[in-house]
## 1
Amino acid sequence: MGTHPVHQALTTDYVKTLIQVKARQVTRHRGFRPGDRDDIEQDLIAHVLKQAHHFDPARGSVNTFIDRVIGSAIAMMLRDRKRLKRAAGFAAISLDNTFVGRCRSHMRVPLSHVIQEGHLPRRRGAPVRDDHEQVDLAVDVAHAMEGLTPRQREIARRLANASEAAVARDMGISRRQVRNAVEAIRQHFEQAGLRESAPTRTARAWPA
């Protein structure tokens, strides 16, 4: 017997990149950290292998099958993590009442004296990105843009430097059509774990 097409597809650059992109996107959801990415990638690969016997070439390409399986696996991950948070799986702590290490006078130091300003976004569940993560984010945004329709991509690009009214006027469409497109784009980016990069009706910081 030859190699199963799903197993073979897992070694291709397309699927490897797909898994890496999807894993990075998952780490941007609340409850996950950038350090979880390797584990998430392995979980996604394991899920694809587990579901490989369901692949039917008569119903679509192997890449489409893998993309669908990965999407299902990610939905389960997010659902399970949300359930764990609701069940008090993540306990809140006080920065003033939590102590770490000892200073030279042998006194314990409150965490509030140690944490830096750059760490504060983590308290709100927001990601803290270094230069490498910024590059990854740019790649993920570009990947998400490919999943939009041509009109949605055009609207997204124009919103970087113009208002909804200006975009509607320049494209010869109604403001309602622009608003509907913005909402569809926003939902698409949220599903990709890129909520902070999704355009809003007043946002201007959008990739050109």
Note: Confidence is low (pLDDT under 50) at residues 102-106, 201-208.
## 2
Amino acid sequence: MTASFVGLGANLGDPQRQVRAAFRELDAIPHTRVVGTSSLYRSEPLGYAKQPSFVNAVAQIETGLPAERLLAELHEIEARHGRSRSFANAPRTLDLDLLLYGELVLDLPHLKIPHPRMHERAFVLLPLVEIAPHAEVPGRGPARTLLEECRNQGVEKLE
């Protein structure tokens, strides 16, 4: 089993409900179980700004699937939630990103691990540090240190 982390985000429909449902769906992936979930966080959109705020979270999973198969399972969950990939940074019903997969570093056209921008995004690092305070981002360092460098991004914990 490989310890991995998945970033979750949504800003269309009922984002909080969708993220909570995705936690359950992650646990239903074959040979995979959720071992921790963060609180939900609200963040402002990056890139394309004319859209609603996002609800974000991170799930820690253990999986027996190879990284590429896990990514395919994440895409299937997104599709069930009506995810459309119309343009970069578009609003979405559900976004699932494979952030970390053990200590693997991978650079394929369709899959990069660690997730390429996670080290500069408080909406990823804050929930990650909440559930894994000693997490390391390969090639970047401790997630807690990276979070300090982007704390001013206005991410707020939801009750």
Note: Residues 2-157 form a domain with the Alpha-Beta Plaits fold (CATH 3.30.70.560).
## 3
Amino acid sequence: MSKLIPQLNIHAYKKFKGIALGFCVSSMLVFIAPISMAEERVKDLDMDSLLSLVKDGESRDNREFNDRIQRFNADKNQQKNLLQKAENRRLSLEKESELKEEMFAKNETEIADGQERLTNRLGSLKELFGVLQQVAGDSKGIFEGSLISSELNSNPETENRQIFLDDLIKTAGSSSKLPSIKELEQLWFEMQREMTLSGKVSSYQADVVLPTGDTVKKQVVRLGSFNAISDGNYLTFDIETQKLVELASQPGSRYNGPAADLEASTSADGTSNFTGFWIDPSRGQLLKIMGQSAGLSERIDQGGIVGYIILSLAIIGILLAIWRMIKLTAETARIKKQMNNNSINEDNSLGRVMKVYQQNGDADVETLELHLSEAISSEVPSLTRGINWIKIISVVAPLLGLLGTVTGMIDVFETMSLFGTGDPKLMAGGISQALITTVLGLVAAIPCVFLHTLTNNRSRALIAILEERATGILARKSEQLSLAKA
């Protein structure tokens, strides 16, 4: 303590010393005060009074002691009585338990004898009930996923066959209760009704769950146990909810069109006229797969920017080819008309070439040949305009498809390097782009090559006509000059 005091603040030390001193003084006053008060009370009492007080206290203590002894003895007697009652109760329960054990053993023997007699009496019927239970279970599994259940469940007057089959399975598997003849006939009826309705086209009102989640009452046309349609859309039967669900993604107009025709040709009583229809033997599974498959627009989107560039070039090439074919066809018609007419018309290339001959009729053969060659050369650009662009597009389109293939494979390898090859779906996007761009490049190139060949042959045919006519003009001019010299 003496080592720590120099390190403390002098003022704090003095303050702490005063507080400790005050606490000691107050404690002493607390203890001294009761002692002084007791001494004052003793001084007020005399010796006789003190003696009487002691005697009264001794007698009071003796009474309390006697009372405690009496209560203890009374409690001891009560505990003995309770113990005796508990022992008597235990003995009676042991006797009752022995009686019940004897009764239980007797009942087990009687049950075993009864089971043996029941087994002997059932004989081959026991095997029959096992087969009945199996058939009922198989029928229940078929009925749960059957479209016919949607029609039967929509009719409030029809008994729920699922509940009936559950009760029949429990009864057939029970050893205490046997199926009745009525229940056997009911099972036969349900199986026969399923087979009969599976060969009919039926129209009825039923609850349909829309892709939005809403449930509405709609007119449904059921084609056997294969397909169900409503408003031209295909429906599937949900086993858990036992309701018809409209497919969120329909298979397309190729299949929805016949569905609408079948629905329009089916009357309210279920009779239907002959019409073509697509049947899904998997009861909706193929329709779901077809609905999830990508359509034309989705396929084009998979090609990305390169795919759209290829399609744009293909459209430009086709439009350019159509424009040139229209121009060349009109020019062919005008040239044929000029060939059958002696008067010169300058609205066609042949007429303009003949106009050059008319203007240079007095020239010699060599000069006239030069003028005609010049006239034909001036007509060739108008006849071949735009055809080379078609050829360029037919060459560039496959190259762009190859570019898309390369970029798609680059995406595939980047995905493989980041996520590995565990999930093929991660690589599907790049592979789709690689294949779709190749397909689009070929789709664009094939018609462009064909159209380029067609337009090029048509323009060459017209140029050949001009050259043929020019050659004929020169031959006649040469003959005329030869006759004049002769």
Note: The chain has a mean pLDDT of 77.
## 4
Amino acid sequence: MCEMCKIVVKNIIDEDFVNFKAPAMFVAFPACTFKCGRENCQNRELAAAPDIHIAPEKIAARYAANPISEAVVLGGLDPLDSPDAALRLVHALRKVTNDPVVIYTGYDKENLGDVLELLSFYKNIIVKFGKFVPGQKPHFDPTLGVMLASDNQYAEIIRGKE
């Protein structure tokens, strides 16, 4: 496989039970502007982890071959700080499944116009918006089915055009 065809991730967990209401493959992305502050980041160790160069189609095939996971979560540092790679992975996943793809980002919805427009071409995309803010109370998000760390964080289904 050509190197230019690959994306960079930091980790892939085939079965994660923490970030979504159903078992999910978790793909950790490598970039972040540390909107929350580097000292507040629960994933800051990922920045120093070795890069994994992998074709999005290989991740999609790995997901499709797993009988346990029912969704894919893109997280890690911030997938939308690597928007081309995140979109390429979503596109590859849509070739093998219509299961939910959940994207954890620290950005607010208002800052993601172009990326959200591109994501809207796909069905069953969920985006968790909002950076971590210290001192806020955790709350349950019904869309994700999990607790989120700050009051300002919420998830929304991106209505697809597909």
Note: The helical segments are 56-64, 83-94, 113-119.
